[in-house]
From TrEMBL:
The protein's name in its UniProt record: Signal transduction protein
Species this protein is from: Ectopseudomonas oleovorans (Pseudomonas oleovorans)
Highest taxon of the lineage: Bacteria
Length: 246
Protein backbone atom coordinates (compact mmCIF):
# COMPACT_ATOMS: atom_id res chain seq x y z
CA UNK A 1 0.00 0.00 0.00
CA UNK A 2 1.24 3.57 -0.69
CA UNK A 3 2.08 5.78 2.27
CA UNK A 4 -1.01 7.32 3.88
CA UNK A 5 -1.77 11.04 3.68
CA UNK A 6 -4.06 13.13 5.86
CA UNK A 7 -7.30 14.77 4.70
CA UNK A 8 -5.95 18.34 4.10
CA UNK A 9 -3.13 16.99 1.90
CA UNK A 10 -5.59 14.79 0.00
CA UNK A 11 -7.95 17.72 -0.59
CA UNK A 12 -5.13 19.89 -1.98
CA UNK A 13 -4.04 17.12 -4.34
CA UNK A 14 -7.61 16.53 -5.50
CA UNK A 15 -8.13 20.24 -6.14
CA UNK A 16 -4.85 20.42 -8.05
CA UNK A 17 -5.90 17.52 -10.28
CA UNK A 18 -9.34 19.00 -10.92
CA UNK A 19 -8.38 22.62 -11.49
CA UNK A 20 -5.25 22.27 -13.62
CA UNK A 21 -7.30 22.33 -16.84
CA UNK A 22 -8.47 25.90 -16.14
CA UNK A 23 -5.02 27.19 -17.13
CA UNK A 24 -5.69 26.09 -20.72
CA UNK A 25 -9.14 27.65 -20.65
CA UNK A 26 -7.67 30.95 -19.46
CA UNK A 27 -5.32 30.95 -22.44
CA UNK A 28 -8.20 30.16 -24.80
CA UNK A 29 -10.36 32.87 -23.22
CA UNK A 30 -7.56 35.40 -23.69
CA UNK A 31 -7.35 34.63 -27.39
CA UNK A 32 -11.10 35.10 -27.80
CA UNK A 33 -10.92 38.47 -26.06
CA UNK A 34 -8.06 39.44 -28.39
CA UNK A 35 -10.17 38.56 -31.45
CA UNK A 36 -13.08 40.65 -30.15
CA UNK A 37 -10.72 43.54 -29.45
CA UNK A 38 -9.27 43.49 -32.97
CA UNK A 39 -12.73 43.36 -34.53
CA UNK A 40 -13.90 46.17 -32.25
CA UNK A 41 -11.01 48.34 -33.40
CA UNK A 42 -12.12 47.68 -36.99
CA UNK A 43 -15.68 48.59 -36.04
CA UNK A 44 -17.16 45.26 -37.03
CA UNK A 45 -18.56 42.17 -35.36
CA UNK A 46 -16.47 38.99 -35.23
CA UNK A 47 -17.50 36.14 -37.51
CA UNK A 48 -17.13 32.38 -37.42
CA UNK A 49 -14.17 32.78 -39.76
CA UNK A 50 -12.40 34.86 -37.11
CA UNK A 51 -12.90 32.07 -34.58
CA UNK A 52 -11.27 29.60 -36.96
CA UNK A 53 -7.96 31.16 -35.87
CA UNK A 54 -8.43 29.36 -32.52
CA UNK A 55 -8.15 25.88 -34.04
CA UNK A 56 -4.39 25.58 -33.83
CA UNK A 57 -4.40 26.53 -30.12
CA UNK A 58 -7.30 24.18 -29.32
CA UNK A 59 -5.61 21.31 -31.14
CA UNK A 60 -2.26 21.96 -29.45
CA UNK A 61 -3.91 21.91 -26.02
CA UNK A 62 -5.78 18.66 -26.76
CA UNK A 63 -2.63 16.98 -28.06
CA UNK A 64 -0.33 18.21 -25.31
CA UNK A 65 1.34 15.63 -23.11
CA UNK A 66 -0.46 14.85 -19.89
CA UNK A 67 -3.82 16.37 -20.79
CA UNK A 68 -6.97 14.52 -19.74
CA UNK A 69 -9.32 16.45 -22.04
CA UNK A 70 -10.77 14.79 -25.12
CA UNK A 71 -12.64 17.84 -26.37
CA UNK A 72 -12.26 21.59 -26.04
CA UNK A 73 -13.24 24.89 -27.58
CA UNK A 74 -15.39 27.99 -27.41
CA UNK A 75 -19.19 28.33 -27.39
CA UNK A 76 -20.58 31.74 -28.32
CA UNK A 77 -23.48 33.74 -26.89
CA UNK A 78 -26.22 34.33 -29.54
CA UNK A 79 -25.93 37.66 -31.32
CA UNK A 80 -22.18 38.00 -30.89
CA UNK A 81 -21.23 36.82 -34.38
CA UNK A 82 -22.11 38.57 -37.63
CA UNK A 83 -22.82 35.40 -39.59
CA UNK A 84 -24.12 32.76 -37.13
CA UNK A 85 -26.87 33.11 -34.49
CA UNK A 86 -25.44 30.18 -32.49
CA UNK A 87 -21.95 28.78 -32.92
CA UNK A 88 -19.14 26.82 -31.36
CA UNK A 89 -15.51 26.33 -32.35
CA UNK A 90 -14.80 22.94 -30.79
CA UNK A 91 -12.49 20.02 -31.53
CA UNK A 92 -12.35 16.51 -30.15
CA UNK A 93 -9.66 13.85 -30.12
CA UNK A 94 -10.03 10.89 -32.46
CA UNK A 95 -8.63 7.40 -31.85
CA UNK A 96 -5.40 8.20 -33.71
CA UNK A 97 -4.80 11.23 -31.43
CA UNK A 98 -5.68 13.56 -34.27
CA UNK A 99 -8.32 16.22 -33.82
CA UNK A 100 -11.68 16.50 -35.54
CA UNK A 101 -14.10 19.45 -35.49
CA UNK A 102 -17.30 18.82 -33.57
CA UNK A 103 -20.28 19.44 -35.87
CA UNK A 104 -23.66 20.08 -34.21
CA UNK A 105 -27.09 21.03 -35.52
CA UNK A 106 -28.19 24.58 -34.65
CA UNK A 107 -31.33 24.54 -36.81
CA UNK A 108 -34.09 25.30 -34.32
CA UNK A 109 -36.70 23.59 -36.51
CA UNK A 110 -34.84 20.30 -36.47
CA UNK A 111 -35.56 17.45 -34.04
CA UNK A 112 -31.81 17.18 -33.42
CA UNK A 113 -31.41 20.90 -32.62
CA UNK A 114 -28.55 21.30 -30.13
CA UNK A 115 -29.74 24.01 -27.75
CA UNK A 116 -26.74 24.79 -25.55
CA UNK A 117 -28.59 27.80 -24.10
CA UNK A 118 -30.42 25.48 -21.72
CA UNK A 119 -27.39 23.44 -20.64
CA UNK A 120 -25.90 24.00 -17.16
CA UNK A 121 -22.30 24.06 -18.41
CA UNK A 122 -23.29 27.18 -20.42
CA UNK A 123 -25.91 28.80 -18.19
CA UNK A 124 -24.01 28.54 -14.88
CA UNK A 125 -20.90 30.53 -15.95
CA UNK A 126 -23.12 32.96 -17.88
CA UNK A 127 -25.39 33.62 -14.89
CA UNK A 128 -22.75 33.60 -12.15
CA UNK A 129 -19.74 35.02 -13.98
CA UNK A 130 -17.65 32.21 -12.48
CA UNK A 131 -15.93 29.06 -13.67
CA UNK A 132 -17.87 25.81 -13.34
CA UNK A 133 -17.44 22.05 -13.53
CA UNK A 134 -20.54 20.08 -14.53
CA UNK A 135 -21.05 16.35 -14.36
CA UNK A 136 -20.47 13.56 -14.51
CA UNK A 137 -23.07 13.07 -17.22
CA UNK A 138 -23.28 11.10 -20.46
CA UNK A 139 -22.29 13.33 -23.37
CA UNK A 140 -24.55 11.89 -26.07
CA UNK A 141 -23.76 14.60 -28.64
CA UNK A 142 -19.99 14.56 -28.40
CA UNK A 143 -18.04 11.75 -26.76
CA UNK A 144 -20.94 9.37 -25.85
CA UNK A 145 -19.30 8.67 -22.47
CA UNK A 146 -19.36 9.95 -18.91
CA UNK A 147 -17.62 13.32 -18.85
CA UNK A 148 -16.90 16.31 -16.67
CA UNK A 149 -17.30 19.61 -18.51
CA UNK A 150 -15.13 22.51 -17.39
CA UNK A 151 -16.28 25.98 -18.44
CA UNK A 152 -14.95 29.48 -18.01
CA UNK A 153 -17.03 32.59 -18.86
CA UNK A 154 -15.56 35.00 -21.40
CA UNK A 155 -16.26 38.73 -21.18
CA UNK A 156 -15.49 41.64 -23.45
CA UNK A 157 -15.93 45.16 -22.09
CA UNK A 158 -17.98 43.69 -19.25
CA UNK A 159 -20.34 41.84 -21.61
CA UNK A 160 -20.71 38.05 -21.58
CA UNK A 161 -19.75 36.73 -25.02
CA UNK A 162 -19.46 32.99 -24.44
CA UNK A 163 -17.52 30.28 -22.66
CA UNK A 164 -14.24 28.43 -23.06
CA UNK A 165 -14.73 24.79 -22.19
CA UNK A 166 -13.23 21.32 -22.08
CA UNK A 167 -14.67 17.82 -21.73
CA UNK A 168 -12.76 15.32 -19.59
CA UNK A 169 -13.74 11.63 -19.79
CA UNK A 170 -14.52 10.54 -16.26
CA UNK A 171 -12.45 7.36 -16.57
CA UNK A 172 -9.37 9.52 -17.24
CA UNK A 173 -9.70 11.88 -14.29
CA UNK A 174 -11.13 9.12 -12.07
CA UNK A 175 -7.78 7.33 -12.07
CA UNK A 176 -6.11 10.44 -10.65
CA UNK A 177 -8.82 10.95 -8.04
CA UNK A 178 -8.86 7.34 -6.85
CA UNK A 179 -5.06 7.26 -6.64
CA UNK A 180 -5.27 9.99 -3.99
CA UNK A 181 -8.31 8.56 -2.22
CA UNK A 182 -6.48 5.25 -1.82
CA UNK A 183 -3.85 7.00 0.29
CA UNK A 184 -6.36 7.96 2.96
CA UNK A 185 -6.48 5.64 6.00
CA UNK A 186 -10.27 5.36 5.90
CA UNK A 187 -12.90 4.59 3.28
CA UNK A 188 -13.76 7.78 1.41
CA UNK A 189 -15.60 9.06 -1.61
CA UNK A 190 -16.13 12.24 -3.62
CA UNK A 191 -19.73 13.41 -3.97
CA UNK A 192 -21.00 16.01 -6.44
CA UNK A 193 -23.20 18.99 -5.58
CA UNK A 194 -26.13 16.88 -6.84
CA UNK A 195 -25.32 14.14 -4.31
CA UNK A 196 -23.87 11.62 -6.78
CA UNK A 197 -20.67 9.66 -6.32
CA UNK A 198 -17.76 10.85 -8.47
CA UNK A 199 -15.08 8.45 -7.21
CA UNK A 200 -14.51 6.18 -4.21
CA UNK A 201 -11.73 4.10 -2.70
CA UNK A 202 -14.15 1.28 -1.86
CA UNK A 203 -16.10 -1.07 -4.13
CA UNK A 204 -19.25 -0.39 -2.10
CA UNK A 205 -19.88 2.73 -4.21
CA UNK A 206 -20.11 3.11 -7.98
CA UNK A 207 -19.83 6.27 -10.04
CA UNK A 208 -23.21 7.94 -10.34
CA UNK A 209 -24.69 6.35 -7.20
CA UNK A 210 -26.90 8.62 -5.13
CA UNK A 211 -25.14 9.02 -1.81
CA UNK A 212 -28.22 9.72 0.30
CA UNK A 213 -27.62 6.70 2.54
CA UNK A 214 -24.42 8.39 3.75
CA UNK A 215 -26.62 10.61 5.87
CA UNK A 216 -27.34 7.65 8.14
CA UNK A 217 -23.74 6.64 8.77
CA UNK A 218 -22.50 7.64 12.22
CA UNK A 219 -19.02 9.11 12.26
CA UNK A 220 -18.96 10.18 8.59
CA UNK A 221 -17.07 13.45 8.11
CA UNK A 222 -17.64 15.86 5.20
CA UNK A 223 -15.09 18.30 3.76
CA UNK A 224 -15.86 20.87 1.05
CA UNK A 225 -13.45 20.77 -1.87
CA UNK A 226 -14.31 24.11 -3.43
CA UNK A 227 -17.54 25.93 -2.69
CA UNK A 228 -17.14 28.43 -5.52
CA UNK A 229 -16.65 26.09 -8.47
CA UNK A 230 -17.39 22.50 -7.59
CA UNK A 231 -19.76 22.24 -4.69
CA UNK A 232 -18.20 18.78 -4.26
CA UNK A 233 -17.48 17.13 -0.94
CA UNK A 234 -14.93 14.61 0.28
CA UNK A 235 -16.73 12.25 2.65
CA UNK A 236 -14.60 10.15 4.98
CA UNK A 237 -16.28 7.11 6.53
CA UNK A 238 -15.32 5.67 9.92
CA UNK A 239 -14.30 2.29 8.48
CA UNK A 240 -10.57 1.77 8.04
CA UNK A 241 -9.52 1.25 4.43
CA UNK A 242 -8.44 -2.31 3.65
CA UNK A 243 -7.14 -3.92 0.50
CA UNK A 244 -10.41 -5.80 0.07
CA UNK A 245 -12.41 -2.54 0.37
CA UNK A 246 -10.32 -0.91 -2.34
Amino acid sequence: MPRSIDVPVCIERLKSALHGVFANLQELSGEVERIWSVCDSLQRKPSSRDLAALRSLIDAQLQSRGTCANGSGVVVEPGELSDQPMYLEWSRLADNHKTLPLMLNFNQRSESFYNYLSMPWFTRPRDTGKAAIEGPYVDLYGADMYVLTYTLPIFFKGRFIGIAGADLPLHQIERVLIRNLLRLPHEALLVSAEGRVIAANTVDWATGDLATRLMGIDGAECYALDDDVLGWQLICLPQALTLSAA
